[in-house]
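Troubleshooting: if your tokenizer reports a length mismatch, compare your output against this known-good record of 261 residues.
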Amino acid sequence: MLSVTNAQLYEWIAAFIWPLFRLLALFGTAPLFSEMSIPRQVKIGLAAMIAIVVSPTIETLPVVPVYSFDGLMIILNEIGIGLALGFTMRLVFHAVAYAGEIIGLQMGLSFASFFDPQSGGQTMVLGRFLGTVAMLLFLAMDGHLLMLATLVESFNALPISGTPLSGQGWLSIARAGGTVFSSGLLLALPLVAALLALNLIMGILNRASPQLSIFAVGFPVTLAGGMLLMLLVMPQMNVFMAHLIEIGLASLETLLGTLAR
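Known-good structure output:
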């Protein structure tokens, strides 16, 4: 007859609970998995399934009761690791959305915005469009699978323990926030420069022909020119967005090493 002791039962629960918290934290912040359109039950169920598969592969587990203070510290560590990984990858998509907002302002689409439940605020249509394109590229590159593979490898780089994470890791995440602005500006730079030249041309025409109303003609010309430029520049923008995604995936492994110091 099969008999299970309380110690064995608590060990099995701990082996499932601690990876589950790291997965849930990742699913709460990472792109694609954190989308509001995905029901919470699906996210929790997927995280539980992955935790069941991953838990037997974890070599060493701390002999600490889940309901103790040390167990609480381990849970906080697991949540911190998942949040760090998901937020680092999320920065790439924020950079793309920021580029879309800059381009939309130059095209005169600042009024074309709607409520985005994901960000909890107003988002420009062009920023949402570029974000959708980046998400499709992310799926085409199997970025979601690579991100999950990095999370599974993180149990070797950052074993489950109550040791506080390195402050250098959190500092590197804060510094990575600056890439949102720099990468977004680089992505939007070709269109911004072309639209600026178009606005200068419209200003010169207005000075040469005062009867030409810049307010009546400028907006449709700028909008049509921006749409045409988007059509021409989009293939190169896709290449740059794919490069940003690759950098984001590579930075996950670097982050694990920094958090472990």
